[in-house]
Each structure stands twice: as structure tokens, then as C-alpha cells.
Write a structure and sequence with these properties.
The complex is a heterodimer of chains A (164) and B (577).
Chain A: E1 2-10, H1 15-25, E2 29-37, E3 43-51, H2 54-66, E4 70-75, E5 81-92, H3 95-107, E6 111-115, E7 119-126, H4 128-137, E8 143-148, E9 152-155
Antiparallel strand pairs in A: 1-3, 1-4, 2-3, 5-7, 5-8, 5-9, 6-7
Chain B: E1 2-4, H1 5-15, E2 20-23, H2 30-37, E3 43-46, H3 50-64, E4 68-72, H4 76-90, E5 95-101, H5 117-121, E6 127-130, H6 137-149, E7 155-161, E8 170-172, H7 192-204, E9 208-212, H8 214-218, H9 222-232, E10 236-238, E11 253-256, H10 263-271, E12 274-278, H11 284-287, E13 298-303, E14 317-320, H12 323-341, H13 346-349, H14 351-361, H15 378-388, E15 394-397, H16 401-409, E16 418-419, H17 430-440, E17 446-450, H18 462-467, E18 473-478, H19 483-492, H20 508-514, E19 518-522, H21 525-537, E20 543-548
Parallel strand pairs in B: 2-3, 2-4, 4-5, 5-7, 6-7, 9-10, 9-12, 10-11, 12-13, 13-14, 15-16, 15-17, 17-18, 18-20, 19-20
Antiparallel strand pairs in B: 1-8
Helix pairs in contact in B: 1-2, 1-6, 3-4, 3-17, 7-12, 9-12, 10-14, 15-16, 15-21
The chains are: A alpha+beta (164), B alpha/beta (577).
The complex binds flavin-adenine dinucleotide, thiamine diphosphate and magnesium ion (MG).
Chain lengths: 164, 577
Amino acid sequence: MRHIISILIENEAGALSRVAGLFSARGYNIESLTVAPTEDGSLSRMTLVTRGNNEIVEQITKQLNKLIDVVKLLDLSDGEHIEREMMLIKIRAERAHRGEITSLVEIFRGRIIDVTDASYIVEMTGSPAKLDAFIKAVHEEMVVEVVRTGPSGIARGAKGLVLS
Amino acid sequence: MELSGAEIVVQCLKDEGVEYVFGYPGGAVLHIYDAIFQQSDVKHLLVRHEQGAVHAADGLARSTGKPGVALVTSGPGATNAVTGIATAYMDSIPLVVLTGQVATPFIGSDAFQEVDTVGITRPCVKHNFLIKRVEDIATTMKKAFHLATSGRPGPVVVDIPKDVTDPRITIPYHYPTEIKMRSYNPAVRGHQGQIRRAVELMLEAHSPIFYTGGGVILGEGSEALIALVRELNVPITSTLMGLGSYPASDRQFLGMLGMHGTYEANMAMHEADLVVAIGARFDDRVTGHIEKFCPHARIIHVDIDPSSIAKTVRVDLPIVGPVRSVLQDMLKQMRSLKQKQQQPNHHATLQAWWQKIEQWRGMHCLRYDRSNHEVIKPQYAVETLHKVTGGDAIICSDVGQHQMFAAQFYPFEQPRRWINSGGLGTMGFGLPAAMGCKVAHPEREVAVVTGEGSIQMCIQELATCKQYDLPIKIILLNNGYLGMVRQWQEFFYDSRYSQSYVEALPDFVQLAQSYGHVGMRIERPGDLEAAMQEAFSMKDRLVFMDIIVDPKENVYPMIAAGKGHHEMVLSPDSELV
Ligand SMILES: Cc1cc2nc3c(=O)[nH]c(=O)nc-3n(C[C@H](O)[C@H](O)[C@H](O)COP(=O)(O)OP(=O)(O)OC[C@H]3O[C@@H](n4cnc5c(N)ncnc54)[C@H](O)[C@@H]3O)c2cc1C
Ligand SMILES: Cc1ncc(C[n+]2csc(CCOP(=O)(O)OP(=O)(O)O)c2C)c(N)n1
Ligand SMILES: [Mg+2]
């Protein structure tokens, strides 16, 4: 099962390598990992996507919690949550295809942010599934390059994952 | 008070109440060594290899419960320390290891004797720090000691670049009395509802067993454990790491469980309807084949580290908390429950269970052949050691068959008397660990049970023992083999003894003498006891006893890979009942 885990972690040198090292040392897989400092500069927020059965994911959350630098952790998959991922995608766009691509971008609520006579760069945010769908829709042979951030996640509702 | 970084490091140790530091100097820690030179509260013991420094600090910690401290230089000093750090990590031993580092401007430039100590040690420490500013030393040291000793204990590495300890830069010194870390809050009390439920299960069970581990010793839970187990009249078994937390001579104690555990302990685990695991982590040496582990039992697991619970084995009732308070709460709740409920006589329910256990005991699984008067059996050597020391010595062990014989044949009555590397199984641990024990307990007998393979891995520490007059007794069970390896080769590789014969052994008697100690060689069973008496009567000398034992003796019982607790291989001698 796929799990998306949100982590508040001390913004210290080496904190990221503790998380990454834990996954490689214990043989857990990381599908994606995003990190950035929060509004409180002493904390970073990570969103980590992993796969495993319930026992493995339980161990993963326990082992993460055990890291001294981890302040708080939430398995977003346990409740309703929102995931968003950002993608930059460079697409072959000769004159003949431009109309079709432009309307696809509109349907997917993306934005064209760079244009040459042979290419577009499209910026798009959405659930990972939506980004997958867009890539499929433009046809593989048209895609020059894809950069994805991996999803960030947040739980629905009024409560926040913050220091209490 | 204005102090330099180096002086602050030493002052922090004083303020933590550290009496002894084991270490080895080098360029990156010269400022610290100079600060050590100029005071006398913190005593430094110079080892002969950094691995020895960390094992010695570890031995001190295991035998006292206080954190051990080691100090090594950057680069090779730090890498030599890694085996010691990993050893402590696997057994959850509180250590603070100070490593020198190249000066901050040089970090990352492949400078002389630079290694990424924080990176190398990260997977085998509870936590580690790289100090970048002299202002951060005091709080970092406080955090290091706090982390090492609280919750599930473990080693903490503090990496200190040379410029941070510069004697020319002084700052006001203040050691924090308390430290709070928002990201670190170990459990202080178990969940009362869960504890109550656990007590109900204990009172309902027909064939319960307590399975206790190193956590009882680490958490000072021995007294509370004894009270609870006696009141419940349940059988109890212990892991290798928990030996001594419950008196071995007590009727309710079934001996060690697991791969080389007793028949009665393993059979009782297999047939139990309730297993109460306390401060034990269901290691693979203990469980045997997981699918066959405790097939009939509900499992209660008390541990301070949530990640120990349900890691390898399903648990029916988890309790996260420190052993001592949880055990005390259990006893309290049990007494009030018994009063309220007018329970049917719980002790009577257990009668059938005890009968079964006595039958298993009747197998005498640890029996060995005593008929041979020519060859010393290793088991006999350990029994003699027990007799001569009155069962009251601190016994440090290396790793191998001799370790198992010591665990099986030296009954430990108290915690912190049995010092050995269980999790990592580090050959070479015994002698340096004994130095730490002896330094901390000068009044007590300290003996090392070792093999001719293991002792050679840190033999250089004989010089340290000489320099500081540490009259340790070394009991070398010399079988001429890497015996544990040889046993596996006999059982599982058709006796193809690949590289397990230790050829070209030194003359240990002369070797001991050349280090300035007393050496003895004993070859006949009839000479052993008198020789050991003599060795232990030399109160102020290190005596190295090279005891030539049966080269082909095996450790029994044994659970082979893939087998369950009820599928032990028993000694051919055990059937002689
Ligand atoms: C050659 C060899 C053979 C071996 N054979 C055997 C064998 O036959 N049988 C055997 O048992 N072992 C054997 N071992 C040892 C084995 O490898 C493990 O080291 C050992 O079984 C682990 O013991 P433990 O479960 O008590 O855990 P420890 O490693 O002692 O762990 C302690 C547990 O207690 C918890 N804890 C710590 N402090 C507290 C506290 N205050 N409150 C609550 N919980 C706490 C920790 O979180 C941890 O989960 C052998 C080792 C070697 C080298
Ligand atoms: C550093 C290290 N290397 C290798 C091993 C693997 N090993 C475990 S027991 C053993 C043999 C130990 O021989 P000895 O010290 O003579 O003890 P004996 O088993 O003969 O009593 C070996 C090689 C180990 N545990 N530690
Ligand atoms: Mg040997």
C-alpha cells in the first residue's frame, strides 16, 4: 500500500541524511521525498511517499519518530488529505500541433511558461494521477523532458500539523 | 568563569560527574588533552587501541549504569572507535564518545586525518553532533549525556573540530542544569488501562511465562520484577542480555532461552498461553523460526521504545513505558484487583503448568560428560570459576562458545554482573570491557571468560592493565579453535573446518609475563581448582590463565536455523538422566 507521510523535523545540517539513511539501512523504499523550511525557520517540513504492508509502514513511522531530529509526524493516508505535485514539462511543439497542445494544457489547468519555435514548457500542479494523465495525453514522443517535485501533502480539516 | 573550548569540554565532564575517560590522543584533540593535563578531577586512562577505549567505557557503563566516556582523535581514531560504538548501540548502552575533527575551515577538503565521523557513525549511534562554535559546546554536551542515558539508552558521538577547542579563545562558561528537546520525549509511565488489562491476562493464564531482557537491567527494574514474579508464582526466563535481573538460583527461574537456551525455558515458551515480554526485543537468536514462535500464546510486550514492539513478532498487548514504573504499576494494580475480585486461587491454576516444567527440567539439558579426568571441559572450567569467586564476580565475556558456557554455567544472582556483547557479538570486547568494570569496581573480582581467538583481538590492552594496575583475571578457555565457527561447520558443513583452526598460537604464559603480568597454563582437570584459587588469591596482579580445554566440545542445547523452540538439538549427555 502507498502511504504519504508528513514530517516536521529540526532544520539542522544532516537531518535529511538521517531520514534518507534510515530508509536505505532498513531496506524501506522511498518513492518520493520533498523538503523545505517552514515559516518557523528552525523547522523543515517533509512529505515522504513510501510503499509497504501495514507492519512495514508501522515500523517506518516508529523508526522515523525515533530519530531525535523528528519533532512530529503524521501518516496522511490514515485520514482525508490533499496531495499536490508540481511538474515542469518540456514538449515538442511545432506549429501544426500548437493548437492541440494549448487546449490540452487548458483542460488540465496548466500554464505555458516558455515558448520557442519548436517547444513549450508547461507548468502544472495537481495530484500525481492528474500529472500522469497529462503526460499520457500529450503522447510520449512529444515529451522532451519532465521534472516533477514529488507530492506535498496536507490533512483536510481545521487541525494542523504544527508544534503544540 | 571564562574558559577555552578545550577547558569547557573537560569542565562539562566534571559537571556531569564523569570520573574516568578512556582515550587515545592525536592532533585534533591535543587542545583537549592539554586541558586534561591541567586538572585532576577527570582521570584519563590511556588505552592501546581506540576500540579498547570505547569497550572500556562500555564496560564501565554496563557495570555501573552510569554513562561511559571515550575520547579519540579524528580520522583513524574515529574509525577505530566505530566497532566499539556499534557494539554499544546494539545493546543500548549509554556512552558519550568525543571525537576530534579537523578545524572547521578544513572540513570537506580531504584534510589530513579527516573522515566524515558524523556520517560514518550515523547508523550506529542514538544520535550524533558536530559542534561548529565554542558557544555550543556546553549545551551540546548536556544534550549528549541526556540522550545517552534517558529513554532507550545508547551511544552518542560528539564530533569536535580542533578550532572549536582553541585555547586562545575563551568565553563565559555555564553548564545547563536541565535540557528540554522538543523533538525528544521518551515515555515516563505506561498506559494504566493497558497495564490493568495485562494484569487481568496474567491472572487468567493457565501457562504463563515471563520473558525478560536487557531492558530490565538498563531500566533498573530488577527489584520490581522479582516482586511481581514471586507474587504471581510464574516461571521466568531471560535473554542473554537480561541474565542477573532475576536471581538464577531461584526456583522460578528457568535459565536462558533461545538458540542456546535451556530445554525447560524453550519448551515453556513453546507451550505457554501467555508470554509477558519485558525489556526484550524478540531477537532472532531468541525467537528461532518466527512462524513457529509461541504458537499458543498471547503476547504482552513492555518496552520503552515503540519501535521494538511488533517489529518481528505480533503483539497482543503493547505497553510503552520504562520497565521499573510499569512493573511497579502492575504489582499495585494486581494487588487491588485481587482484593476486589476474590480471585479463585491463582496459584492452584498454575499447578499443572509447574508440573510440566519440572518434567522438562528433569531432562538436565546442560549435563555434560564429567567422566574424563584427562581433559578439562569448558563447562567445568566455568563451574570452577563460579565456585572460586563465590558466584559474586563481575564476569566479562568475549564472543563464541566460551560466552555461551559462561552464560549457562555461571548463575548470575544480581544485575550488572554479566557483561557481554550480545547484539553485535564483538570478539575482542571482553578484556577492555573488564578494564572499565575494574576501574569502576576496584573492590570486586573482575574476570574475563574468553577464547584464544577473541582474546587476540584486543590483547594489546594487557599493557593498559599494567599501566593502571588493573588486577583482572583472564580465564582463557583455549580449545585451539574458533569454536563457535567450528561447531557450525561440524553440524552444517559436514565437519569441513574451513579456517576455524587457530594455528600459531602464542605462548600465552610468556605473553602475559612479557606484559608484566602472571601467566599460568592448566591442562588437567585435577589442577584447575587449586590453580584458580591461587590466581584469585593474587589480589593485586593480573593473572592470565591459559586453560587447555576439550577442543571438540559443543554448546547444547541448540536451535538450528529455521527451527522452533520445541525442536532443540540436545546434548548426547543430557539423556543420561
Ligand atoms: C554467539 C551468540 C549467541 C547468542 N545466543 C543467544 C541465545 O541463545 N539466547 C539469547 O537470549 N541471546 C543470545 N544471543 C544474544 C542475542 O544476539 C541478543 O543480543 C539478545 O537476545 C538480545 O537481548 P534482549 O532481547 O534482552 O535485548 P537488548 O538488546 O538487551 O534490548 C533491550 C530492550 O529493552 C528495551 N529497554 C531499554 N531500556 C528500557 C527501559 N528502561 N524500560 C523498558 N524497556 C527498555 C530496549 O528498547 C530494547 O528493546 C547470542 C549472542 C551471541 C553473540
Ligand atoms: C570481530 C568478530 N569477527 C568474527 C566473528 C565471528 N565469530 C563468532 S564466534 C567466533 C569464534 C570465536 O573463537 P574463540 O574466541 O576462540 O572462542 P570459542 O568459540 O572457541 O570459545 C567467530 C570467529 C565475531 N563474532 N566477531
Ligand atoms: Mg577457541
